[in-house]
Write a structure and sequence with these properties.
It is built from ten helices and 17 strands. The chain is α/β, with parallel strands linked by helices and 360 residues long. The strands form four sheets. Strands 3, 4, 5, 6, 7, 16 and 17 form a seven-stranded mixed beta sheet that branches. It has a six-stranded parallel beta sheet with strand order 10-9-8-13-14-15, with helices on both faces. The longest helix has 15 residues. The radius of gyration is 22 Å and the shape is globular.
Length: 360
């Protein structure tokens, strides 16, 4: 291993802390220089998750589970005050004495809480390809989630597909699905901004779940003539993805289903619950309901796929789709209390928000 001189100076940093329900603090402190096996990363941008992260902000995380059992920085955090965030991109600025010199100056991605700088081991970093910008790279976890959803749903030629929820994951998922030769691809979301953007991502039709007329139109679109008499049967969607974050959306998924339809649940609801109607047609229709979680791979894929292969493909999709176009709000970390309150009170105004860090 190539030796490199260690950094000996400490670093002033800003860190974001969730201190209570709807309470945010930006703390300034000094962190020690990286040890022999660590590096210091200067963050360029970090993305706010309007799903899981807002559950933290609203105090809707179950008390009996870690925020993410698969991200080291979040495993032991359950109670306020706590740090959160899992999409940071920055530049390696200094190295410990035992770290390979090639890391210096690299742009890297990390599953790391919001902060201007952080110290970690290289094993916790993912090198960003040189042709991908920081603002595209920050979408890596959402893109991997979208790729995982497609793998779990396994859309087939000519199928009718509905995506419930057109937040960032829903939009990326829709963009991937638009590359398949589907018969129909529909998006459903209550927020007009998201529906409008979905149409630019390849979705053919969009619907408001709270509009009876829209849902009636969607059901008509999913119908087909079943026999020569002209009688119309509601065939339903072949495949439905639920990524809205709203538990009650599962009832709409069931309502849009037909015989042997597949429902893939990509949302994490925290401590939110809803009564789901699984009797009647839902029971007779032999629905297949699958939960999808990006921290693992479906067993049927694990013989040929691993996390490294999925990341490689996710980078390829980031190059193709350039999701930085979905960023609607950029703010310094100091404005975090205002930005989170706006996300909480006026989500219809924001598609993707990121913290941008300036370093003198």
């Amino acid at each position: 291993m190539t030796q490199y001189s260690a950094s000996t100076s400490s670093q002033h940093v800003q860190q974001l802390w969730f201190t209570g329900i709807e309470q945010i603090e930006v703390r300034e402190l000094i962190i020690a220089a990286p040890s022999a096996d660590e590096v210091l990363v200067e963050v360029e941008c970090s993305a706010i998750s309007a799903g899981t992260e807002m559950l933290v902000y609203r105090g809707q995380i179950p008390n009996d589970m870690a925020l993410d059992a698969n991200i080291a920085a979040l495993q032991d955090q359950q109670q306020y005050p706590l740090q959160y965030g899992y999409a940071s991109v920055g530049i390696v600025k200094s190295l410990g004495a035992n770290v390979e010199a090639s890391w210096l100056g690299k742009r890297v991605f990390a599953f790391q809480p919001h902060a201007s700088h952080f110290v970690t081991k290289p094993a916790n970093l993912i090198a960003v390809p040189v042709d991908i910008s920081a603002e595209d790279a920050v979408f890596l976890p959402n893109m991997e989630t979208a790729v995982n959803l497609v793998q779990d749903g396994a859309p087939a030629l000519g199928e009718r597909v509905v995506v419930l929820g057109q937040g960032i994951v829903g939009l990326l998922l829709s963009s991937l699905l638009a590359q398949f030769p589907l018969a129909q691809l529909h998006g459903v979301d209550a927020i007009a901004l998201r529906r409008e953007r979905a149409l630019t991502q390849g979705v053919k039709n969009v619907f408001d779940p709270f509009s009876a007329a829209d849902i009636h139109s969607l059901k008509e679109t999913l119908a087909f003539t079943a026999n020569t008499t002209g009688a119309t049967t509601i065939a339903g969607a072949d495949l439905i993805f639920e990524v809205s974050g709203v538990p009650d959306a599962l009832n709409l998924a069931v309502d849009l289903s037909g015989f042997a339809s597949r429902i893939v649940i990509g949302s994490w609801y925290g401590n939110k619950t809803a009564a789901i109607a699984l009797g009647g047609d839902a029971h007779r229709n032999r629905l297949r309901i699958t939960t999808s979680q990006v921290s693992s791979l479906a067993p049927e894929l694990s013989g040929r796929w691993d996390k490294a292969r999925r990341f490689e493909f996710s980078w390829q999709m980031l190059r193709t789709l350039r999701p930085s176009q979905l960023i609607t709000h950029r703010a310094p970390l100091a404005d975090a209390p205002i930005l989170y309150q706006r996300l909480h009170q006026s989500p219809a105004e924001i598609l993707q928000a990121v913290f941008s860090y300036s370093h003198s």
